[in-house]
Prior knowledge:
With 294 residues, this protein is α/β, with parallel strands linked by helices. It has 3 domains: 60 residues, CATH 2.40.50.140; 146 residues, Rossmann fold (3-Layer(aba) Sandwich); 59 residues, Orthogonal Bundle (Ribonucleotide Reductase Protein R1, domain 1). Helices cover 27% and strands 24% of the residues. The protein is built from 9 helices and 13 strands. The strands form 3 sheets. It has a 6-stranded mixed β-sheet with strand order 10-9-8-11-13-12, with helices on both faces. A hairpin with a 4-residue loop joins strand 6 and strand 7. Helix 2 crosses helix 9. The radius of gyration is 21 Å and the shape is globular. About 5% of the residues have low confidence. One of its GO terms (cellular component) is cytoplasm.
Amino acid sequence: MTKGTIVKALSGFYYVKTDDGQTYQCRGRGLFRKQKISPLVGDRVEIDIMDDGDGYVTKIEKRKNELIRPPVSNIEQAIIVTSCLEPDFNALLLDRFLVLVESKGIEPLIVISKMDLASEQVKNEMAKYQSIYENMGYSVVLTSSKDEELFRQLIPYIEGKSSVIAGQSGVGKSSLLNALDPNLNIDTNHISESLGRGKHTTRHVELIPLFNGLVADTPGFSSLDFREIDSEKLPAYFPDMVAVQDDCKFRGCMHHKEPKCAVKAAVEKGQIPSFRYEHYLQFLEEIQIRKPRY
């Protein structure tokens, strides 16, 4: 048996890069279908290599985590790309990404792109957001749409890690990858001004080797709902709330209608930004009103 990592899935084939650097085109065993297991890009697997050079995936090792959309596993880091304009910075969408990433135990890196297109007012606003999120313990990197030196400050974050790039259409995810490695030449289309969104030609998930790490080139998170998150766990995905919640009067406080809540007190004092608390309440309501899972 040979061990390796699935680096691409396409048309029923799995491309496995073995630990010695060879790549084999493989199919999954019928056993996986019976067990309702689907191999994912990022899976650590064992393969059986046939005489013709192709192989079969015979075993999937236990996953550290898995994402549904994009279908990828064992991700250590999510590079969340949000632009300062075109499209405009959206803190609600950023917080939605952060909650989803936190819920999977994935380390987030926030990248604010297109800073070279921003006015002084927008630059000052982005600096404030950078400070807010860094105070929560997140890493925040500001990049340009043209200056490759600004992109290169991302290299230490990518080195040796398995990463996925997330963000809404048009924020510059593929442009970022192309700037880091021009040989990738990932197709991008310009933002459609009438629709206000970008078009991405990626149709499959692939892990691209980059600076001794792997980066998933995907169309991004196509699902941003909280169907896998229970309301009781939501506070744990807001690190600014976690920092003060031990001072709440009631254990298991949901920071909503409970009296003597340390989180609400911190919001009133300005220690937790009010927009973060508003987003928390919005997400909490969204989870509570969804249809029960059976």
